[in-house]
Amino acid sequence: MGNSQIRILFTIPNFVTAGSGGTLFDILEKLDRQKFKPYVCIKKAGGKYETKLKELGITILIAPFTTSPRPYYKFIFKAWKISLFFKQYNFDIWHSFNYLDDYTEPIIARLAGVKNWIYTKTNMNWYQNSWYLRSLLATRIITINHDMEKLFFNTPKRKRKSVYIPVGIDTEKFSPATPSQFNLREKYKIPQNHQIILSVGHIVPIKGHLHLIKAIALHENTSLFIAGRQTPSPYLLEIKKLINNLKLQSRVFLLGEIGNIHELLPEIDLFVMPSITKGEGLGIALLEAMSCKKACIASNVPGCRDIIKNKINGILVQPENPKALSKAIIQLSLDIPLQKQLGLEAKKTIESNFSIVEEVANHVTLYESIMNPHAK
Question: Alpha-carbon distance 370 to 373, whole Å?
Fold first, then answer.
């Protein structure tokens, strides 16, 4: 390897709708530029992270990095044409943050002369044979929770390829010392005896908002704020209808997408992640709240149960169960010492196991091991 930089291409569909955009930005922001020369390829321009990466001096490429495999007789020609764009850069590693079950990307990478194609498994989807092909063609696979290892990468060949690297949080940014900026209690006229509860996530069914709203209806002295992108959809309409039907307009508020969530977290009492059974890759918003020393309640689903140890650094509840969720909210609302203790342990958990410094170090170790497979 000598003194030359390792040239890495990171691919992600975009920085607008791709939820892993923030994770990728955090890695790139702290990646050692003496050792690595990163590039990012997106299919669609836009989003705050694209702007921030440009400010860091990272080259942004806007180009297709996948294609439809059909018709099959045209596929190789289409893939070859796309690969010509990337061939000029002589990338050493191609790291995909594409969340879809696409297997054309590693083929395009190979045609571009990139020998090392890796991908991060960002979700719990595994329903198509495409995932098997994607994994077969990968040099290495990064898993972000232990359920992935057990469910998807349990064969000898896939075990050898996979490495566990959980998402890390910038503990300086997400800190209980961060000044609050929103004044929720005053702005929304929240009674002093109400616990302020926050849930963060795009307004999509997997996030389980409906169950949380039903849980709030079972406990009067609570006010719920939901932060997340509100793309027009039947699900969003269902949420608004439920709020109206349960007469919760004065206690449940949809904030929309919040870019500076670290300045909102200091104002809340409890954080809840009510994800449904299908689960997610890893609850990044949950990690952020824990880093701010907040007592957290989460569904007992993949990702969340990697982070929370029940009744030690938070509370896990049965997913899709409003009564269980309400019971946990009531317990913490009435037991402030427990609330503070769980928040303290939550902060320790993030500092010990989920810091951005550790995540970046683990990625560096992986990249260097790929480039020097025989090094000790």
Answer: 5
Say how far apart CA 181 and CA 235 lie, in whole Å.
30
241-285 tens-digit pLDDT: 999 999 999 999 999 999 899 999 999 999 999 999 876 788 999
Cis ω for the linkage preceding 191 (within 30 of 0) = no
Helix (H) or strand (E) holding 32: none
Burial class of residue 292 (count of CB atoms within 10 Å of its CB; 0-12, 13-18, 19+) = buried
| Closest of 368, 375, 373 to residue 6, by C-alpha | 368
Report yes or no: 243 and 252 within 8 Å, Cβ to Cβ. Answer: yes
Cα first-last separation, the chain = 14
Residue 374 has pLDDT above 90, yes or no: no
- Kindly list the domain boundaries of the chain, sorted by start residue: 6-168+355-371, 184-353
CA dihedral 48, 353, 282, 313 (to 10 degrees): -110
Q: What angle do CA 182, 185, 186 make, to 5 degrees?
A: 85
d(CA 295, CA 124): 26
8 A C-beta contact, residue 87 and residue 8: no
184-353 maps to CATH 1.10.10.60: no
DSSP string, 217-280: HT-SSEEEEEES-----HHHHHHHHHHHHTT-TTTEEEEE--TTGGGTGGG-SEEEE---TT--
Order of strands across the sheet that contains 315-317: 252-256, 222-227, 195-200, 270-273, 295-299, 315-317
Q: What is the mean pLDDT of the chain?
A: 95
* 3-class DSSP assignment, residue 212: helix
CATH number for region 6-168+355-371: 3.40.50.2000
